[in-house]
Amino acid sequence: MTPSRSLILLGATGAVGRHVLTGALNGDLYERVTVVTRRPLTAHQGHPKLEVCVVDFDNLAAHTAEITGTDLINAMGTTHKKAGSKERFIQIDHGYPLEVAQIAHRNGAHTCILISSLGADPGSNNNYLKTKGRLEQDVQALGFETVVTLRPSMLKGERDEVRLGEEAGKLADRVFGFLIPARYRAVDVQQVAKRALKAAQQRQPGWLAIENEDIRTP
């Protein structure tokens, strides 16, 4: 008999996270999906697999008993503009996800999937890429059996916010996409979500980075 598996999902209201949630709820891999969120979830209300854990991210210790599952997928992220400051951005994109990963690992999770970014590097001079790289590095050090990092380029698909840089990039991708190397082409949010769930299902031991061109490959 296949052991039951359960998912902890961060970032379920974001562009990628919404599709991860739908796929996890509709698929056969997980018996339970726990969404860790700062506000109540309106989608999928009443779904028998869904548990919503509304938390104060500045007091995650109060929710330790609720953050349980065999797998963790982190699709949480923001921008410097939305965060309001460099320090707040680091807290949202590094501090909170790392603390959730620490709790999940202590509670027995063995698989962690991170939605990161093309060019993520803890030594980067770019704060966005440096923060993503630091999260990758620090999660790897926690001791999960499996850690998979997805590094997408620009994301295309529905968003709740307009990011002008990404919109310009997506326009260039539509017009000149055939000239752009596969590593840098825009990738659909649904492709990223599907690849994250596939990585969780495969559960390859150790650490694996999946670059943008491989995310785009079916």
Overview of the structural elements:
- The chain is 38% helix and 19% strand.
- It has 218 residues and is an alpha/beta fold.
- It has one domain (6-156, 188-208): Rossmann fold (3-Layer(aba) Sandwich).
- Helix 4 (127-140) links the parallel strand 5 and strand 6 (146-151).
- Helix 1 (15-26) packs across helix 6 (189-202).
- The longest helix is centred in the middle third of the chain and has 21 residues, at 86-106.
- The chain starts with 5 loop residues before the first strand and ends with a helix.
Helix and strand topology:
Elements (H helix, E strand, L loop, with lengths): L5 E5 L4 H12 L5 E6 L12 E5 L16 E4 L5 H4 L2 H21 L4 E5 L11 H14 L5 E6 L3 E2 L7 H13 L10 E2 H14 L3 E6 H4 L3
Parallel strand pairs: 1-2, 1-4, 2-3, 4-5, 5-6, 6-9, 7-8
